[in-house]
Amino acid sequence: MKKYFCLILTFVSISCLAQTQIFPQRMVTFKNPAGLSAPKGYSHSAVIDMGKSKMIILSGQVALNENGDLIGKGDILKQTEQVFANIKRIIEDAGGNMNNVVKLTYYLKDVSKIQQVRDVRDKYINTKMPPASTLVEVSNLFRDDILIEIEATAVIAKK
Fold first, then answer.
1. May I ask which residue range the UniProt record assigns to the signal sequence (predicted)?
2. For the domain 27-157, what is the CATH code?
3. What are the DSSP E strand ranges found in 6-137?
């Protein structure tokens, strides 16, 4: 009996390993929508097929326009506006809208600016049912002139 149990366990383990290596390649598409700066070494989003819906995981977005120029140097309001415009563009490219955002993660160099960030955010999200969120104050981002970076996750029902 132990011999058969070990044999079955081995086949199940091999099967799971094979699915782990193959399964994501069929289910995940990496995208870089038009209208965003060209990423260097990453994708702007990963689209995961979940059957009746798809999950969109966004890389952290910063205040760069499609040419890679910083919008709003030294201005948290302008930078946050550009970040949310980038997030919206990615979500819409995936066939959704900002109501599909389920999670936001903020990386902010000065947490005392959170109300200004929220004022911009509230133009983009459903404030009656806001997405889950996390705020982290950081000492620096990948460039000194970047004041904020926001990651997002959205779930979009298939039609």
1. 1-18
2. 3.30.1330.40
3. 28-31, 45-49, 53-61, 101-108, 132-137
